[in-house]
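Need a sequence for this fold. Nothing fancy.
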């Protein structure tokens, strides 16, 4: 069985929308194919392992059902790998960023994950520049 990391939240003004979207993804993903590592990013930018009930994701109570994972990794690859191990998984096969707004839809999170040198798959908008241009329409028109 593969391990999928679901990322939600983030520091954008669309943090709350991301939580609702993530709840829907978690409820509908095929659990016979994927073990889930559900990671929420707070408005302050802290990455937390979510361990609660799916319904909690869309409310502020998700913070009470999560814990901060400490890692002193020096590179994005080490960070994702260490984070997965600290969460009880040997590796992460795919990351599904269910995030909206700045630092998310603009390709920032995908860029961070691409620095993992292809060791994990990103199913949505794999090419960072295209994603950034899509998000910043005024750049793509010029």
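Here you go.
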């Amino acid at each position: 069985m593969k391990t999928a990391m679901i990322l939600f939240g983030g520091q954008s003004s669309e943090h709350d929308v991301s939580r609702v979207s993530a709840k829907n993804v978690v409820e509908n993903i095929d659990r016979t194919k994927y073990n889930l590592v559900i990671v929420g990013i707070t408005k302050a930018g802290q990455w937390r392992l979510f361990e609660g009930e799916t319904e909690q994701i869309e409310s502020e109570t998700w913070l009470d059902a999560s814990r901060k994972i400490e890692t002193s990794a020096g590179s994005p690859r080490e960070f994702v790998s260490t984070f997965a191990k600290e969460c009880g998984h040997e590796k992460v096969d795919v990351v599904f960023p269910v995030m909206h707004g700045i630092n998310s839809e603009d390709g920032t999170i995908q860029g961070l994950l691409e620095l993992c040198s292809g060791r994990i798959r990103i199913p949505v908008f794999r090419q960072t520049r295209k994603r950034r241009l899509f998000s910043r329409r005024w750049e793509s028109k010029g």
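For context: Residues 124-142 have pLDDT under 50 and may be disordered.
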